[in-house]
Specification:
Elements lengths: L4 H22 L6 H7 L1 H12 L3 H23 L9 H34 L3
Length: about 120
């Protein structure tokens, strides 16, 4: 059986997202399985969208954007809070990650891939 690098990368991003959601959702002061399921929405949407995409750059970009924003939001909320309402982002971010951040990541990844292909065709 041939090793599929893209499948491995997709599943690694999804697994890291699952670990992040479970650790912050179930081991907090008020554990909630409903929140964990809600927090996993962007990773499920990412997996389904990546099945349709042909561009490797788009697949990598979308996943890294979701995971990166998820990590940054949790650092901001749990370690560097600036106000008492920062935790509201935990409730709203899965929606925004699925609707805005993932497509922007797909776009950036696709653009970077096209740029690399263009530079390689010029011999740079």
């Amino acid at each position: 059986m041939k090793f599929n690098k893209m499948l491995f990368l997709k599943l690694t991003i999804i697994l890291l997202g699952i670990i992040l959601a479970v650790l912050t959702g179930l081991y907090g002061a008020y554990p909630s399985m409903w929140y964990v399921l809600w927090a996993l929405l962007p990773y499920g949407a990412y997996y389904l969208a990546s099945l349709k995409l042909k561009s490797r750059g788009a697949i990598i970009g979308g996943g890294l954007f979701i995971l990166g924003v998820d990590i940054l939001i949790r650092i901001q909320i749990f370690y560097l809070p600036s106000s008492s309402t920062d935790s509201i982002a935990l409730v709203t971010m899965p929606f925004w990650e699925s609707i805005i951040i993932m497509p922007v990541g797909f776009l950036f990844g696709w653009l970077i891939e096209k740029g690399i292909i263009h530079l390689r065709s010029k011999g740079i």
